[in-house]
Structures are given as structure tokens and as C-alpha cells.
Amino acid sequence: MTEAMARAIAAQLLACAARSGRSEDQRASLIELPTLVLQLAHAIARQRYLPQPFTVFAVTDPKLREIFAPAYLDRLVHHWLIGHIEPWWDRRFIDDSYANRSGKGTQAAIERLQRFMRQPGHRWYCQLDIRAFFPSIDRARLLALWRAALPRLPHPPATLALLDHVASAILQQDPTQPAPTPSGQVALLRQVPPHKSLFHAAPGRGLPIGSLTSQFFANVYLNELDQFAKHTLKVRAYLRYVDDFVLLADDPATLLGWKARIEDFLQERLGLQLHPSKTVLQRSGQGVDFLGSIVYPHHRLTRARSVRALYRRLAWFQWLVYGQGPGPATAAAPPGGSWLRWLAQHQALYAPGEPTPALLVRMLATINSYYGVFAHANTWRLRQHIYHERLGTLQRFFLPDGPGYRHLKIRKAWQMPRW
Q1: I need a labelling partner for 407 at 20 to 30 A (CA). Which of 147, 150, 199, 332 fits?
Q2: Burial letters for 364-387: b for 16+ Cβ neighbours within 10 Å, e otherwise?
Q3: From its phi and psi, is residue 357 left (phi > 0), alpha (psi between -120 and 50) or beta?
């Protein structure tokens, strides 16, 4: 029975590998992957699975934070677990929870907020943020929430036992023990504020940012808050994206009353605290700084911080291609640790000023990710300005893909590799 179950799990894990793209870790273990997956499946079937140590690095976009990347085989296990449990849980989440859910996301959240702002009785809003959310999650409370729901999942008892074993191993793992392998710009890790670092978290606290399971279980944890806001407080206009949430009402007194009750609930039920300096209470017509945009009832603007972040990337791209840029401060470091890893594994230039097609594709993906966000706001002039005034010498590689400047494309002359 265990052998048959292990082979079934191995097939499911290989299916997860086929859907997970072509990472460097996967390419490195491609030849041995069937054997490694079968060994992993046997560990799960015998309830002996233990996660491997993480790799840790820091990113600066949109702000400085530490990322704990799980090992490749653990990522397959995460996909296997979430594939079994997410459909049941997703039907029990409220509609207005928008992070890390299929068919949701930032743009859907912003559009929903605008609909709330246009409705009568929503002249005021209160925006709240949880202080150091991921490092503050109480893993024992989260495990209790998981165990309480487990018997209701639509799986046979033998499957439930395996799911519980894997979920428990993940939720009980201390991401800092054994010590994770540092990667990227190690100096940045030392700059992460202690209250936002798992290395300084209280015992039993913290989920690692960077894992699929952390994103999912964060929604499980804050589903308690969502249900409280919607069904106990009866807040009609409430939406949440990770730990950033907004409530709307017709007067500030109602919102302050809800805030006080939410503060008590978070502390007593989940062991969390609201950020003391990130509460915003004002009229809806003044706009909401939410998910990278300034959101108004009938339009939105792009936040200046997002524009500056793109400018920094363009300056670094120019330095990367030409060995020069507007100044050493802007060209001192790549946009993130993923760029360092990519550059170590790929040819970036044929010669100074002559990027390879692979580098152009990589740069274009970054630029168009910003253009895609900007295109949802009233930013036609901004998008035009960025191309004509900020791209500089990078214009020789890229063209606007249409008069709307919604995204760019690579010029044909630079699309073919040099032989």
C-alpha cells in the first residue's frame, strides 16, 4: 500500500515539476529528477518528510525585505500540498480577499475599491496595516487553524494523514534553523530592520516570505480577520490584500469603532498588532494610497515611488550595457538578487553596447512589468515621457508597441542572436 501510494505521489510531484517552469535548480537536477522525486514521494508516504534548509537573500523592491527561497524539491512539495487543499479553502475565503488567489490580484482589488468609493454611504475610509505581519505569525495558532479544518477537507483519511504530515512539517519548521544559505548581496541582509527579520523573530513566530505555502497560509491566518469584519462587525465595504486592508463607511466615528474592535481581535485571536503609524482615516475623495496607486473613485494615479523604482532600473540597465550611467549611485547595484544569479549563468553582452537577445528579453520583461502597471492608471503622458526622455540610449533596442505606449517591444534588428 505504501509503495503504491508513493508511486502515485511521485507522479503528482512530477506533474508539479512540469508546470513549474525551467528554474536553474530544476535544470541542475533534471537527469536525477525522477529518482529524487521517487525518494521524496517515499518520504511523504512514510510520513518522514522534512523540509530542507532555505536560501536567503534581500530585495529592495518595493522595499527592503528578506526572502527565504525553499529548495527546489521542497517547492514541488509545496505545489503538491496546495493543489490538494487550496480549492476547498478558496471557497471559504471572502470574495474581497485579493492576494495570491486565482482571478484576483492587485488590479481587481483596486477596481473593487473604486466601486466601493463610488457607492453611497462610503464618504470616509480607514486604511489599516498589520505591523511586521509575516515575522509575527504565530505558527502554533496557524497549525491549530489548519488542524481544525483538516477533517472537513474532501479527501480519504489516508490522504488527509499525509496532507497533515506535510503541512505540519512546513508550519513547524524554523526557517532560520538549520542556518539558511545566504545569496545575492549579503550586505543588504544586515540592513533589514530587526522587527521585519525572521532572524530576530520570537520563538515559534514567523513564516518565510518567498514560499508558496506562506502565501497560502497567510490567507488562512487572516481569513479569521476577514470573517470577523464581514460577519461580526458587518462591514459591507471591506477588502484586504495580504496585510493591507481598507474599510469604508459614511462617518469617521463608525470607522474608529471598527478599528478599535479589530485591534482587540487581532491581539487576542491572532497575536498581531496594527502598525501604529500606518492608519489613515480621511474622506474617500482625497484618494487612497493602495497597492502602488493613488486610488480615486473615478480614476487612479501612479505612486511616485513606483516611477522612481523604474528610473533606477533604467539607469542600471544603461550602466550594464554601456558601462556608464547617470552616476555611480544609480549604477552601484542590480535591481535584485535574481539579476546577479541570471548574469552568472548567461552571456549578457557580445561587446560593450551590444547586448545579447537574452539580455534584451530580460530587460524588456522588467520594463513592461512597470508599463503594465502604469497603463491601468491615467499615465499616457508618463509612459510617453519615460520612453522619449528616460530610456536614453536604450531606445536603440526598444520601440513602443503602438501609439498607446502600453508596453514596448524589441527592435527587429536586435532580435536575432549573433553567430
Answers
A1: 332
A2: bebbbebbebbbbbebeebbeebb
A3: alpha
Which residue has cell 524539491?
A: 73
Tell me if the pTM is above 0.70. Answer: yes
DSSP assignment of 141-192 equals HHHHHHHHHGGGSSS-HHHHHHHHHHHHHHHH--TTSSPPEE-S-HHHHTTS
Listed in sequence order, the residues at least 6 apart from 245 whose beta carbon sits closer than 8 Å to its beta carbon are 127, 128, 129, 225, 229, 238, 239
Instruction: Give the type of residue at 174.
Output: D
Encode the chain (419 residues) as per-residue pLDDT tens digits.
Answer: 578 888 999 899 988 888 765 555 555 555 688 889 999 999 999 999 999 999 998 887 778 889 999 999 999 999 999 999 999 999 999 999 999 999 999 999 999 999 999 999 999 999 999 999 999 999 999 999 999 999 999 999 999 999 999 999 999 999 999 999 998 778 888 899 999 999 999 999 999 998 999 999 999 999 999 999 999 999 999 999 999 999 999 999 999 999 999 999 999 999 999 999 999 999 999 999 999 899 999 999 888 888 988 998 999 999 899 875 444 444 445 666 677 778 878 888 998 999 999 999 999 999 999 998 888 888 889 999 999 999 989 999 999 988 889 999 999 888 877 65
- Compute how many other C-beta atoms are within 10 angstroms of the C-beta atom of residue 133: 21
Q: Which residues contact 324 (CB under 8 A, 6 or more apart)?
A: 318, 331
What is the Cα–Cα distance from 202 to 200, expressed in whole angstroms?
7
Q: Degrees (nearest 5) of the Cα angle 84, 85, 86?
A: 110
Question: What single string gives the DSSP state of each residue in 245-289?
Answer: EEEEESSHHHHHHHHHHHHHHIIIII---B-TT--EEEEGGG-EE
Backbone angles phi, psi at 245, to 5 degrees: -140, 155
Q: Partners of 126 in the beta sheet?
A: 247, 281
